[in-house]
Design brief:
With 497 residues, the chain is an alpha/beta fold. The chain has three domains: 5-49 and 56-82 and 223-303 and 441-493, FAD/NAD(P)-binding domain (3-Layer(bba) Sandwich), CATH 3.50.50; 101-213, no CATH class; 307-429, Guanine Nucleotide Dissociation Inhibitor, domain 2, CATH 3.30.519. 32% of the residues lie in helices and 18% in strands. The chain is built from 15 helices and 19 strands. The strands form five sheets. A seven-stranded mixed β-sheet has the order 7-6-15-16-17-14-18. A five-stranded parallel β-sheet has the order 9-2-1-13-19, with helices on one face. A three-stranded antiparallel β-sheet has the order 10-11-12, with no helix packed on it.
């Protein structure tokens, strides 16, 4: 819509999804990013000649992003190059058993039967029943949930019998598998939303189905290239991106967002404002207290939040050609480890660790003969009170020892050339993530759909939310959907849909 001005606060994946769609429709869209790079938790980190992703390393539900590009008259393949991974990952369990799930049915049958005889029949039932849930649930997540009326849509009502909202994720998988470690292989994905398989709603069994039904992909150059490609597409349609330009506050007049004020005191007016910052951080820092009666500091403090992550980014002067692209090394007592992360909020003596050996697939990320090792350890968020200044170095040494002894990354420590650590405290202080909860608000039933912050902000007019803290939730595909929903709400208001 020529002449109508939109300001997007934050240059993350949700902001780019909304920005691409709005710019293509003719809106005058300007995006302002606090940091000196775009992408937010999807940004690149460069250490010397090594390139890492800050956060997400799994690309799934590729069709969601493809549709964003298609709606703007573009092809995703012209902006990014993706590779399907086989095996999807290596799972190493506490007693040493290893499972290598594959998107190839024949390989999957062989690897699953050799791991746990008789499990493949349960796997076939899992694929059949979880596809039905997926087909019912995905249309539900495409609804904005701005009012109770949305619960009476045919999509939502028809999905209720198969959602498994009344039970837990782990109990859903027990229907298919008797082997506890096979159950973990299909429930550990709860870590993507920062929750425990033993408490996450059964709805989230669709996450492992998304992996097994659609595959896991790597983006050449790292998943940070997703935001890079979207930035390029956004700018081609006239969108403007300005980095190192922090917004201080949303300007509100007559209960309507009218623009923003920057940290330097300058102002810019707009017809609509889209907030693409961490939700609770944005409430406390961008929205004046008198305009967030529903989200006071006390209310924000009482909400449930996901776990955090301890990150290691290692540039290593050797390669590991025999270790798959993705690995998860489970603690010997995985359930206890998860409870320590989410319930008792203590630092585990026996942590579970995710490791990415991306140069196996994409040698462009490191110099020849060298590799990037990305390490993510789920840990409690900052409600725990853990002193990371004290724990940062000892925990680092514990994790590196674990990688060398149980993970198969031989001689790792003596070959480290570059290194960066991000602790939960760093997530909060440097990356502006409330309580360091990297997966945002928890995804319990009391904080989903209508009970999650709405895409159209409720407290005042002409303000919209995108990102993991609003509907539909965290994870790249759902964050892209939040951008689409918000953009289309603006278009609908203006009569363009």
């Amino acid at each position: 819509m020529a002449g109508k001005k939109i300001i997007i606060v934050g240059a993350g994946p949700g902001g780019f999804a909304a920005g691409m769609l709005l710019a293509h429709k003719g809106y005058n869209v300007a995006m302002y990013e606090k940091q000196d790079v775009v992408g937010g938790r999807n940004a690149a980190i460069q250490l010397g000649d090594y390139i890492f992703d800050t956060g997400p390393t799994f690309l799934m539900m590729v069709d969601v992003l493809q549709r964003i590009f298609e709606k703007t008259g573009k092809k995703m393949e012209d902006y990014i190059h993706i590779t399907k991974l086989d095996p999807m990952y290596r799972l190493k369990f506490g007693e040493g058993r290893e499972l290598y799930p594959s998107p190839d049915p024949d390989k999957m049958k062989e690897t699953l039967e050799s791991f746990s005889k008789g499990s493949y029949e349960g796997y076939l039932q899992y694929l059949k029943k979880e596809k039905r849930k997926y087909d019912k649930l995905i249309p539900c997540l495409e609804i904005p949930y701005g009012s109770l009326r949305d619960y009476f849509s045919w999509q939502f009502i028809s999905s209720l019998p198969v959602l498994d909202a009344h039970t837990t994720l782990y109990r859903v998988l027990k229907r298919y598998f008797s082997d506890p470690e096979v159950c973990i292989a299909f429930t550990f994905q709860a870590k993507y939303i920062g929750m425990s398989p033993w408490s996450a709603p059964g709805i989230f069994s669709i996450i492992s189905y998304i992996e097994h039904g659609g595959g896991i992909y790597h983006v050449t150059g790292g998943l940070n290239q997703l935001s890079g490609g979207m930035k390029k597409a956004f700018e081609e349609d006239g969108g403007v991106v300005k980095i190192s330009t922090p917004v201080k506050t949303i300007l509100i007049e007559n209960k309507t967002a009218i623009g923003v004020e920057f940290e330097d005191g300058t102002r810019e007016m707009a017809d609509d404002v889209v907030i693409n910052a961490d939700f609770a951080y944005a409430m406390q820092n961008l929205v004046p207290q008198e305009f967030r009666r529903k989200y006071t500091d006390m209310v924000l403090e009482k909400k449930k939040y996901s776990c955090s992550t301890y990150m290691l980014y290692l540039g290593v002067k050797k390669t590991y050609p025999d270790i798959p692209h993705h690995s998860i090394i489970f603690s010997e007592n995985y359930r206890r480890n998860v409870e320590e992360i989410t319930t008792t909020r203590i630092l585990s003596d026996d942590p579970s660790v995710y490791v990415q050996n991306a140069c196996l697939t994409d040698p462009s990320l490191a110099p020849k003969g060298k590799c990037t090792i990305y390490v993510l350890v789920p840990v409690p968020n900052n409600k725990s009170g853990i002193d990371w200044n004290r724990e940062k170095k000892p925990f680092r040494d514990k994790i590196l020892t674990l990688l060398e002894t149980r993970g198969g990354y031989t001689d790792l420590v003596k070959n480290i050339e570059e290194e960066k650590i991000i602790t939960p405290e760093d997530w909060e202080q440097d990356k502006f993530v409330y309580k360091g909860a990297t997966f945002n608000l928890a995804h319990n039933m009391g904080q989903m759909l209508l009970a999650r912050p709405h895409n159209k902000f409720e407290e005042f007019h002409n303000c919209y939310l995108v990102g993991g803290g609003t509907h539909p939730g965290s994870g790249l595909p759902t964050i892209y959907e939040s951008g689409r929903i918000s953009a289309e709400l603006i278009m609908k208001k203006d009569g363009l849909l």
